[in-house]
Amino acid sequence: MCRLLGVIANKEVDINFSFYLADKPFKKLSEENPDGWGIGYYKNGQAEIHKEGLKEVGEREKYNLERVKSVKSKIIISHVRKATHGDKSTINAHPFVCKNWIFAHNGSVNKDCLKKDLENCSPKGETDSEIYFLVLIQQIEKHKDFLMGIKSGIQGVKKCGNYTGLNFIMSDGRNLFCYRDAANYPEYYSLYYLYRDFSNGQVSFKSKETNQLIELMKSKSESKEKAVLICSEKLTYENWQEIPLGTMIFIDSSLKIREFKL
């Protein structure tokens, strides 16, 4: 099972807390998802990706996640992979990029059936997830409407059958979108969101507050940082909200959260 993490904030932020200091840090989830990792973000409005598959990591640090510490952006998407389709290589690691969209997926879909529906896009790797992504982009462009395109793409995936989870996080560089759905085992394909406001100084954590964490919270409070986080797991003891099955969450640049049943 892959794991997803997404952040959209009112200013450029890092995700060091979520990766390293949270009660259940995202880095720890890589131990159960050992086949690759990646991080996508926007720099000057353009999508940037760093990712590695198991083969490329080799004898170096297992995922070289120290690179995460240097990333700052208003929108960040990260993923740890447990492979079901395709080699354990960098090209098959998530996130994927197409036309400045960034996308990461948890689950599996009917790769061969969906590939027949692709008209102008060719996958670079071997994964079903990348084909799922390209089908969604194709439908968004065809309908000239994000929600209609996503709905049409998901209907196509379900029509093909033989899928497990459809969870994804994606962004166009301005907004963050996520969707949760599964054919079976909904507790396995979990997805949550959290609105976090450091600007009022009220955020606190039940985990052991080290000096490093206290200083981090103080810095975020002074900078009036606000953010919405999406994750497959509840990383902290804060008030995470479970996303219902078949539901799209849309967060715009003002951090307004809208929910759509698809």
Strand order of the largest sheet: 3-2-4-1-10-9-11
Share of helical residues: 10-25%
Point out poorly predicted stretches. 56-60
Give the amount of beta strand, in percent: 25-35%
How many helices in DSSP terms? Answer: 7
- How many beta-strand segments? 13
For this structure, what is the CATH class? Alpha Beta
Which structural category do the helix and sheet elements fall into?
alpha+beta
CATH topology: Glutamine Phosphoribosylpyrophosphate, subunit 1, domain 1
Radius of gyration: 18 Å
The count of domains is 1
For the biggest sheet, the summary is: 7 strands, antiparallel
Name the shape in a single word. Answer: globular
Mean pLDDT: 84
General description of the model:
The chain is α+β, with helices and mostly antiparallel strands and 262 residues long. The chain has 7 helices and 13 strands. It has a 7-stranded antiparallel sheet with strand order 3-2-4-1-10-9-11. A 6-stranded antiparallel sheet has the order 5-6-7-8-12-13, covered by helices on one side. Helix 5 packs across helix 6 (146-160). The longest helix has 16 residues, at 128-143. The relative contact order is 0.18.
Describe how the helices and strands are arranged.
Layout: E1 3-13, H1 16-21, H2 26-29, E2 36-43, E3 46-53, H3 54-57, E4 73-80, E5 96-98, E6 101-106, H4 111-115, H5 128-143, H6 146-160, E7 167-171, E8 176-180, E9 192-197, H7 211-222, E10 226-231, E11 241-242, E12 247-251, E13 257-261
Antiparallel strand pairs: 1-4, 1-10, 2-3, 2-4, 5-6, 6-7, 7-8, 8-12, 9-10, 9-11, 12-13
